[in-house]
């Protein structure tokens, strides 16, 4: 978890033996022999502080906001143009300091350099701080007035408490004469600053033995009336801290004593000498991306990594002999801030409330990849129950479910296939089925959880009527004692979760307390209240354990389906047990689309650039080129996605015996006027011919319009033999069924016919790998199927990144289970002679 700095952040690196230089990071990222940008020279303070906003058309168009302070330009990147509308704050991601000379820079940063692209000065002028600029900047709330050509008036930069690799702020234009009034919101009055209560002098009174937390109501709309503030919603465990002298204890929301799990926090609080109190807060751990991650928190508990845990406190219901539960929230929070002034620790910190237009704050939180925001009424008392005065606005659907059963794994999957989910009605007695979840697990989690599931297995279903989850996999029932937190896209009409992804097991909540969370209208005193922002793709916020860090995970790769880069990585991570047997050990080519479908795409067959987990083969295998590539594990698969890869295409030979192909592939490609049903019939006819020749064929969808029939071979044939056999089969089919097939390339030859593409079988040719996604609208995948399934298929794009994993988990048996047995097939002269008849 990043720590809140107590002074303006500066790089810790030194340059030429000098003290830490705030421009060292700026210099380190640039080659001044190749870029026209000014060198990182610190300037002297000027009487009039400059500011500049530069429009930067780099890999993504954004705006760079820079304020002169202490001899440099403090700098933030804004994904959107600054808005003078007070209802539209902007996310501002802090970047390295820039030299003062950069305020005059505009022009082109050449390709290959950091920040390559065109820079224009969008606005410039001077700025005046409202108070002590250095102090306010260090404290994370800097208010100032801009005197520019485009922007004027009063503004505030507020640093959020969202843990991130780069500090994130909100840039907010405050009400003033230069600002347009918001359309749907009346002008609000300035709030009087809440005064802390006089509770700092120590009292010997002991706090109550028990305190239950105040809970928020899930809503789908933000209130627009005055008198509310927001807090960032953290992805962790709700906890309450009881301080009674040196006796400090930490409890879960259900009252379990978890003090032993928070020793660093307890020790830190004990050293601070705080008065007796009850504190309300959230325990979190940041993942490798700097985001609060519930799975990372669980790992910290499992591995006893308590020093990784940070507790953010946000309320003070009791302090120093005074019961503050009837005191307005604004005063409790002011007292809490005063209590921790100068006493914050690395383990326990105060979560700062955020003021501003709530809908914009909510949308901004979702854009930043957070879970959402908490909205709290400023004058709310503290009640140990669920209250409408506290509301939670989520960026995606997420809640706890009772585990009622699980399915057996299929294929190369271990542990189990999917968890069956349920929840209790309001009476706490009737258990309802809520669907299943089969993604979001890594192999270790599958095996660990299987042991826990086996321990509570029971012969009879725990709910009536017994659900029928579908698929062929056997179902096991369990006693309803385990609780799983699940993220999902939406509820279906029959009250089942759709596109669900596992987050973690919850041990702090009893199963009997699990209810379905119903979103209600959260508006307050407003007829026109903006609703929940359109949800991002389900997997874009999924926190599955990926072996490679994914940058720009929220980049939409396909606008049609909404699949993001993170969702694509999660898909390949999930299907790797099925996909790797067809991918590993072979030369591979990738189709890269760094900006997604609709942007630039290119096919890469050689390892011109190192990709995490992608192996470079011996250069002698393909002379006069860069080395061929090979991917043997999940790290390489996901690492290629990180580099923008969407499709994976493999050779028909393995790298260790590259001159001996081990399969022949027939690509059935429909011509104009051909329905998919005719392609299915064509594949069945081709299978019949292979059967007559004594060969076993396997079929998969192409993920596009056609089908691939794959015939395994013993590694004894040369390339010419494999290609010659494929050509002979294609021509034979075209000759016997001239109204159905053609073996001649070109659109004019395939009108009303199916083209059997046999050219996939020469040395160096590739075919899309089984389970690979396709860079086409909808993100369909190439899916192996059983021959018996063909007649029911609606199309070659039946399975996509969205639903492929669910299909695989429902399978009772791998449709290509016998593939290995057919690997000793050989093409004989007799077969070729028969095809020539």
Automatic annotation (TrEMBL):
Keywords: ATP-binding, DNA damage, DNA recombination, DNA repair, DNA-binding, DNA-directed DNA polymerase, Exonuclease, Hydrolase, Ligase, Manganese, Metal-binding, Multifunctional enzyme, Nuclease, Nucleotide-binding, Nucleotidyltransferase, Transferase. This is DNA ligase (ATP). GO terms for biological process: DNA recombination; DNA repair. Gene3D superfamilies: 3.30.1490.70, DNA ligase/mRNA capping enzyme, DNA primase, PRIM domain, Nucleic acid-binding proteins. It catalyses: ATP + (deoxyribonucleotide)n-3'-hydroxyl + 5'-phospho-(deoxyribonucleotide)m = (deoxyribonucleotide)n+m + AMP + diphosphate. PANTHER family: BIFUNCTIONAL NON-HOMOLOGOUS END JOINING PROTEIN LIGD (PTHR42705). Residues 302-438 form the ATP-dependent DNA ligase family profile domain. It is an enzyme of class 6 (ligase). InterPro entries: DNA_ligase_ATP-dep_C, DNA_ligase_ATP-dep_cent, LigD_ligase_dom, LigD_PE_domain, LigD_pol_dom, NA-bd_OB-fold, NHEJ_ligase_prk, NHEJ_LigD. It comes from the Bacteria.
């Amino acid at each position: 978890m990043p720590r809140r700095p107590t002074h303006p952040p500066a790089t810790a690196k030194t340059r030429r033996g000098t003290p830490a230089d705030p421009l060292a990071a700026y210099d380190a990222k640039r080659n001044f022999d190749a870029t026209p940008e000014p060198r990182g020279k610190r300037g002297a303070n000027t009487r009039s502080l400059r500011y500049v906003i530069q429009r930067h058309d780099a890999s993504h168009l954004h705006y760079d906001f820079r304020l002169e302070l202490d001899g440099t330009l403090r700098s933030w990147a804004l994904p959107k143009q600054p808005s003078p509308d007070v209802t539209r704050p902007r996310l501002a991601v802090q970047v390295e300091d820039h030299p003062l000379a950069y305020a005059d820079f505009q022009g082109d940063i050449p390709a290959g350099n950091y920040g390559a692209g065109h820079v224009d000065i969008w606005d410039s002028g001077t700025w005046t701080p409202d108070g002590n600029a250095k102090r306010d900047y260090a404290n994370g709330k800097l208010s100032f007035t801009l005197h520019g050509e485009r922007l004027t008036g009063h503004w505030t930069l507020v640093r959020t408490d969202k843990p991130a690799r780069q500090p994130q702020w909100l840039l907010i234009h405050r009400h003033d004469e230069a600002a347009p009034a918001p359309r749907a919101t009346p002008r609000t009055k300035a709030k009087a600053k809440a005064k802390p209560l006089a509770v700092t002098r120590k009292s010997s009174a002991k706090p109550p033995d028990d305190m239950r937390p105040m809970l928020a109501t899930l809503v789908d709309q933000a209130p627009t009336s005055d008198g509310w503030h927001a807090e960032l919603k953290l992805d962790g465990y709700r906890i309450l801290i009881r301080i009674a002298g040196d006796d400090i204890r930490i409890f879960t929301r259900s009252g379990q004593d978890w003090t032993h799990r928070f020793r660093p926090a307890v020790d830190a609080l004990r050293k601070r000498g705080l008065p007796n109190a009850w504190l309300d807060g959230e325990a979190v751990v940041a993942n490798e991306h700097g985001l609060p991650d519930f799975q990372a928190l669980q790992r910290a508990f499992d591995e006893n990594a308590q020093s990784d845990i940070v507790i953010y406190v946000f309320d003070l219901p009791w302090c120093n002999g005074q019961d503050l539960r009837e005191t307005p929230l604004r005063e409790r929070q002011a007292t809490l801030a005063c209590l921790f002034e100068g006493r914050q620790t690395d383990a326990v910190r105060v979560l700062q409330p955020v003021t501003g237009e709530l809908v914009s704050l909510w949308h901004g939180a979702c854009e930043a990849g957070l879970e959402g925001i908490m909205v709290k009424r400023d004058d709310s008392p503290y009640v140990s129950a669920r209250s409408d005065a506290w509301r939670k606005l989520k960026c995606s659907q997420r809640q706890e479910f009772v585990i009622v059963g699980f399915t057996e794994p299929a294929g190369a999957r271990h542990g189990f296939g999917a968890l069956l989910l349920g929840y209790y009605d309001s009476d706490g007695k009737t258990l309802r089925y809520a669907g299943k979840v089969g993604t979001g697990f890594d192999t270790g989690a599958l095996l660990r959880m299987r042991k826990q599931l086996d321990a509570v297995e029971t012969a009879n279903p725990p709910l009536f009527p017994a659900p029928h989850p579908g698929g062929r996999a056997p179902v096991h029932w369990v006693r309803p004692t385990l609780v799983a937190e699940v993220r999902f896209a939406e509820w279906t009409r029959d009250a089942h979760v759709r596109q669900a992804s596992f987050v973690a097991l919850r041990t702090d909540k009893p199963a009997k307390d699990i209810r379905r969370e119903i979103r209600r209208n959260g508006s307050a005193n407003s007829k026109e209240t903006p609703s929940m922002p359109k949800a991002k793709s389900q997997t874009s916020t999924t926190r599955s354990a990926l072996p490679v860090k994914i940058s720009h995970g929220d980049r939409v790769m396909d606008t049609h389906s909404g699949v993001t880069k993170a969702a694509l990585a999660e898909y390949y991570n999930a299907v790797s047990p099925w996909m790797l047997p067809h991918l590993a050990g072979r030369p591979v080519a990738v189709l890269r689309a760094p900006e997604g479908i609709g942007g630039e795409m290119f096919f890469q067959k050689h390892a011109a650039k190192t990709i995490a987990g992608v192996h470079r083969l011996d250069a002698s295998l393909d002379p006069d080129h860069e080395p061929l590539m090979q991917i043997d594990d999940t790290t390489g698969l996901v690492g290629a996605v990180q580099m923008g890869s969407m499709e994976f295409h493999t050779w028909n030979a393995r790298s260790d015996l590259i001159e001996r192909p081990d399969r022949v592939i027939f690509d059935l490609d429909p011509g104009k006027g051909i329905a998919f049903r005719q392609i299915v019939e064509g594949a069945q006819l081709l299978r019949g011919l292979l059967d007559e020749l004594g060969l076993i064929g396997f079929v998969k969808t192409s993920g596009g319009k056609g089908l691939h029939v794959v015939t395994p071979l013993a590694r004894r044939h040369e390339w010419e033999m494999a290609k010659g056999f494929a050509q002979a089969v294609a021509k034979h089919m075209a000759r016997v069924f001239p109204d159905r097939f053609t073996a001649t390339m070109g659109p004019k030859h395939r009108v009303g016919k199916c083209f059997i593409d046999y050219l996939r079988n020469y040395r160096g040719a590739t075919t899309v790998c089984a389970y690979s996604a396709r860079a086409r609208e909808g993100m369909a995948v190439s899916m192996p199927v059983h021959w018996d399934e063909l007649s029911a298929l609606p199309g070659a794009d039946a399975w996509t990144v969205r639903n492929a994993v669910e299909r695989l988990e429902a399978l009772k048996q791998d449709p290509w289970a016998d593939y290995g047995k057919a690997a000793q097939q050989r093409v004989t002269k007799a077969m070729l002679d028969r095809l020539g008849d």
